[in-house]
Amino acid sequence: MAQYTATAFQWSGTHYNAQYNVSHTATFDDNDNSYQGGGDGDETISIDGGAFGSTVSAPYAIDVSFTDTGGEPQEETFYFFNTGGTWYFLPGPGSEFTVGATLGSYQSHTTGWDYTDVICFTPGSLIATPLGDRLVEELGIGDLVITRDHGLQAIRWVGHKTITGARLYANPHLRPIHIRKNAFGPGLPCHDLRVSPQHRMLLSGGDAILQFGEAEVLVPAKGLVNDHSVTVDFETTQTKYIHILFDKHEIITANGILTESFHPGAMGMEAIEEASRAELFEIFPELKIDPASFGPSARHVIKVNESSLLAL
After folding, report:
1. Alpha carbon 191 to its chain's center
2. What's the per-residue H, E or C state across 233-279?
3. Model confidence, pTM
4. pLDDT digits (tens, 9 = 90+) for 117-159
5. Residue 42: how many other CB atoms lie within 10 Å
6. How many angstroms separate the Cα of 108 from the Cα of each of 62, 65, 111, 213, 253?
């Protein structure tokens, strides 16, 4: 059996439009990476470290509107489950829904969901290495990559996750973000780049200093969407996301633009499939006890709704 842990909120029951001031830790004990509800007798769930109880009802992936703690309207897919006669929901990795947010109204839903989500590159991305630009899908453990802060660093772990066309259709928030050539200036990027929505790009300039007191900030790709040079890729029929990890969170170059390596924080760990996670724990056993032990992000991270403060 495998266990999956995520931040959950107890649904108010018969209505939305409620503020959520308390979060819970939900740990799923399962024999696969999909939550199937009452139809799977192998699933049990513990809330806040309590006893593992049965899982009931159907699993729902529901598109819901909400207002984040900054007062900004949002819409995302949340994952609903029922245990002990109580409904809970899980925001996805990197969600703007946190303690203090107000859940809005139902938009649409599908039945069934996986425990994993994704924060990573897509095949075809060119990563700067001492041997020149190399396709991310051809890189492996031990290969050297040029980093912004620490020179040449060896890759310690690589993970992959394929997203099928059916899943992209049912979960449009998983679709890649398409950053077109020259979107941020000549050669930035030098070729079109596709990354997952929560993958973060490094931006700098006067606005970053003025708004955040930082010369450089990391911005989630979905916060850069402008409907012309940065768009959601609605044409792809399926995609593969690729994670590359170093000893520390690093700033690296992909298609000529500065971006991040994978950071296995609490939400990042949820993006990794069971087999890849087991391999990661062999390399970094301390992460199994405390994902935060990996260390901080390489730069200040801003939220999706804060990206509008930057002139792009």
Report:
1. 23
2. CCCCCCEEEEEEECCCCCEEEECCEEEECCCCCHHHHHCCCHHHHHH
3. 0.60
4. 433 556 788 999 999 999 888 899 999 999 999 999 999 988 7
5. 11
6. 6, 10, 11, 39, 38
